[in-house]
Input
Amino acid sequence: MNIFAQNRIMMTLEDRIEAFVKLGKKINELDREEFEILSSNIQNNNTWFTPVQTEDALRTISINLQKENFESWLSSYDLKAVKKIKSIGVLMAGNVPAVGFHDLLCVLISGHKACIKLSSSDQVLMNWLVKELIALEPRFDPLISVEEMLKSKDAYIATGSDNSARYFEYYFGRYPHIIRKNRTSVGILDGIEKPNDFRDLGKDVFQYYGLGCRNVSKLYVRNNDTLIEFLDAIAEFRDVAHNHKYHNNYEYNKSIFLVNKDPHLDNGFLLMKESNALVSPIAVLYYELYADLEELNLRLSEEKEKIQCIVSLKSWYPGSLDFGTAQCPGLDDYADGVDTLQFLQNLS
Output
């Protein structure tokens, strides 16, 4: 009997869940000194990943890794029916701290082996999470491998841009696969929002400096007056400009707008420009006016395949999230709307 089959006998689904619950507790109980060392190493590797961003990412992970969340998440799957361990190649993105963790979690919870290629932008935190998980549950050791070349795997999960997706399709298209492309998120304003609501929306815009697919890069608004109110209300986020990369993006895009005489709004750290496009540059937020719900529904339906999530005040728009929650996905909130766990379950 090979080591993977032995591991299957030794580890039940309950064992795997318990290991991740322990990891959640470990993250939650991380002392300040250990966190400062970890976050400093992370920022040295990627200056976009400040201690605040790392803390936000770890908080979301620790909240998800609670036993009651696993029970709710896994109730609709039959993971005990998975009989044969498959080697799953996982190509991870690196735009947000630990953005690839959910794929790792899905592969291991389903009982398969995770063969992961880390993004150079997110090596430190992901390696730390893997190390801590194995320390808490050594039986995971043969089921996790960090690799530079993902060849001859049974299936693949790859996350990247529209350009890299074409590369992934070429190399992995003949295997079972999930290949994710560019997506972004949008916000809807209907004119009833108050300053506190705008500040909550600001979290969806500025968390992780707008680098994530769950960051709002465009607003749909009823009138221009709302935009002025929004820009005034989000003054507390001005510290994003202290990051030199963000500030350079702001200055560059501002220069382009001025040279081209493009009409835009500017509050000193965020530029707003009317555009039909969805994905705005860093430090820029696009907006588009809509007259009524029928027009809005049509526009959003046309962009459906490019939108990761929608936010609106108290989730008034069907299928949307409340302001301030875009970067707090639950365990069952799959990227691109593709059920990763169902895909992994079906492999066997």
